[in-house]
Amino acid sequence: MNARRLALLGATGSIGVQTLDVLRTLKAEGYPLSVTALAAGTRVEPLAAAARELGARAVGVGGPDEARAIRTLLPGDVEVVHGPSGLEQLTRRDDVDLVLNAVVGAAGLRATLAALGAGKLLGLANKESLVVGGELVRALGPDPEAIIPVDSEHAALFQLLQGVERSEVERLWITASGGAFRDLPPAALAQVTAAQALAHPTWQMGPRITVDSATLVNKAFEVIEAYHLFAEDWAKIDVLLHPQSIIHALVELVDGTVLAQLGPHDMRIPIRYALTHPARLGQPPARLPLGGQSLDLAPMPPDRYPAFHTVLEAGTTGGTAPAVANAADEVLVAAFLEERISFPAIAEGLDDVLGRHRVQPADRVEAVEAADGWGRAEARRFVERAR
Ligand code: NDP
Ligand code: MG
To answer: Which residues line ligand 1 (CB under 6 A)?
Structure first.
């Protein structure tokens, strides 16, 4: 097998650091994979350290200041690029076969489009690419095997659907842990703090997705992601509450059979699969102790997670609505983490901003980016009013 050559975008984040860990293990096992390029936004020191360790040929950072800072930390022959066009450049390089996009937020969209446009394999953690730009990604008509999802539920669906005819699928189910506040009475939510929201019951993740898991905005994003990856019909995707986060997804078939994918909550497992697909390797970072597991599944409660329904409606509306939902959510989550607004105000802000958005077609990346800018500005106004 020829060695796959990787560009890892978002190398300093939660998924990025876990990917570096997987890369070290693969290297120790002699697996044929090399690292051509690494990128991140602002954390130049860990990025430079990883680039030196893995022998990367090129590095991307957020802006010109970071580019100057990292230049001094790298050998002279390592290329340094910056900004959105820098990410696109890294993904298009001839010496890259596989792009792992683990950037957070809508900033990941251009890299996703560039990777697919250049015919690269794409390991996709950046779900926002599909949330805000799902229609643009679909318009590229990528080979269904070209996107290997890293998000655990979608990695599960990708594996469950191997060898299954789409006409035989009755419904796709993804699971939700219920987030940090799943056992609190709704009246107590107005008092919860950022620190409490960041304590996810089962997964260790970056700050935004952890808060999005408490509001279940993350799950609405994941339904949108599943729609763009696997379904033609919103009615065929549903969510189950599953507090143990052991079953990641289920596929119900027309004959009444239900296939389920289970695994430990360790993102290194789907990351490794995205890097080595279709091969499966031994010596996983964790194994599931199967005896004595209890697995609870329950339908979504209708009223507990208002932001879930608001964001999902933006997804089914389509056009620029999901880009506005994503942008507004990013601003509202940041304001909550800075203790400028309450936890329930995240859902109220989403409802306020989306209620005032005039949906446009999302047929160009510029339209998506304009909607992103509008959603951010409107959410900032909501935060000012709410204080
Ligand atoms: P983090 O916030 O931990 O990391 C984000 C990464 O993106 C950092 O490396 C950051 O760089 C980089 N970044 C941010 N903006 C830019 C930019 N403009 N240009 C280049 N790089 C940028 O996020 P996570 O790792 O938690 O999440 C990454 C993605 O994976 C998200 O889309 C998330 O929804 C998804 N995901 C994450 C899971 C998890 O377990 N963490 C599970 C499933 C999906 P820096 O910090 O140096 O500025
Ligand atoms: Mg997920």
So the answer is: 10-16, 39-43, 62, 87, 102-104, 107, 125-128, 151, 203, 205-206, 209, 267
